[in-house]
Amino acid sequence: MEYLELAEELLKVTHPKGKRPPLHRMGDYDHMKDMTLRYLYENGGETTPRELADAFDISSARVTKVLSDLEAEELASREGDIRDRRRIIVRLTETGRQQMEARQVMVREHVARVLEALGPEDAPELVRLMGRLISVLEEQGNPCCAVAKRR
Questions:
Q1: What does the pLDDT look like over 76-113, one tens digit per residue?
Q2: Which of 1, 77, 103, 121 has minimal CB crowding within 10 Å?
Q3: What is the pLDDT of residues 42-84, one digit of tens each?
Q4: What is the pTM of this model?
Q5: Quick one: DSSP state of residue 25?
Q6: CB within 8 Å of 89: residues ≥ 6 apart
């Protein structure tokens, strides 16, 4: 099998020329804000800016920007740690929690509709292949990230 030709075909399908890739059509969706809210939601509703920077491999400046945006939307808050005044605690607000719960329902229903449209043979196969793809990507690392960090 010619894997370079297959790679070209896959990239043409997922990134058509002159069009925004179908998997990226989410309007004003901010992936980093969503990941931060999800991280808070799945980790007891609180964390520190340092933990976020480490978890997402991003700069403290980027964390600060994301947290400022979330605070402006009243989805998260930053407070000083009463035990260690040098530390900042980031907390998911009630509004943030409600938004995450609503988003989880919406995403789950959307994915179910997509899987249903694929049908009973292709849907389980897609789930299996996506799991395999994630495993391979985790094993091999991401060369795109390595290139970006060298700049």
A1: 999 998 998 889 999 999 999 999 999 999 989 999 99
A2: 1
A3: 999 999 999 999 999 899 999 999 999 999 999 999 999 899 8
A4: 0.73
A5: -
A6: 46, 47, 48, 78, 79, 80, 81
The tokens describing 44, both together, are: 């007891």
56 residue type, one letter: F
Q: Which two tokens stand for residue 45?
A: 């509703």
